[in-house]
Design goal:
Helix content: 25-40%
Shape: globular
Radius of gyration: 23 Å
Structural class: alpha+beta
Number of helices: 4
Strand content: 35-45%
Strand order of the largest sheet: 4-3-2-6-7-8
Number of strands: 9
Largest sheet: 6 strands, mixed
Distance between the termini: 68 Å
Length: 196
């Protein structure tokens, strides 16, 4: 015996429309919420060139207050975040010390790290929240970008920004440390833009 189902379009079409509208409302709220959180942020951009060979290509972007207290990691390469700091202590050691990486949980590490990228322009942002995603207090903060170029040879970019000011002209300082073996440029053209 074959059973046939008949559908009454009077009920199906309104149900479909109701479902579509509720789904649109749900996602449109998410978009508005995402827009609100990204309006007040520092956009961080730099060119990254992936180098050949070992003991290279590691970098981290993080925030500290002016007393040197850790606020939040924006990004760190996965190798260093997942035990690379222990196996190769020369790999972005300033970030490892500031973040107290040895105390971070796997969930924390997964949320701030990803595989070492190919050569490209890196675009990140900081929304003035701390590692618990809570808004930071008004005042000055330091944005740091550390890159392990080759073994102990490293670069550190740093800039001070003020949460409550416009930050039109952000001064970025560059400091190299360790012995330079050859001319290699892993991170360049660093720019910071305050979006309010």
């Amino acid at each position: 015996m074959k059973i046939q189902y008949t559908y009454n379009n009077k009920f199906i079409i309104p149900l479909f429309i109701l479902f579509a509208l509720s789904t649109f409302h749900l996602y449109s709220n998410d978009v508005i919420s995402a827009t609100k959180t990204s309006e007040n942020a520092i956009q961080i951009s730099f060119d990254y060139i992936r180098l050949s060979g070992i003991a290279s290509n590691q970098f981290a972007v993080w925030i500290e207050d002016l007393s040197g207290n850790y606020v939040k990691t924006i990004y760190v390469t996965q190798f260093t975040a997942k035990k690379g700091w222990k196996n190769r202590p020369d790999s972005i050691p300033l970030w490892a010390k500031s973040s107290k990486v040895s105390t971070l949980s796997k969930v924390d590490i997964d949320s701030i790290s990803s595989a070492t990228p190919q050569s490209k322009t890196i675009n990140l942002s900081w929304d003035f929240t701390d590692y618990n995603s809570l808004p930071v207090a008004d005042g000055e903060y330091k944005i740091l970008i550390e890159g392990s170029i080759r073994w102990k040879y490293r670069v550190l970019y740093s800039a001070i920004i003020n949460k409550s000011e416009n930050n039109k002209n952000i001064n970025i300082e560059t400091h190299y440390s360790g012995e330079k073996k050859k001319d290699e440029n892993m991170i360049s053209n660093v720019s910071l833009l305050y979006k309010k």
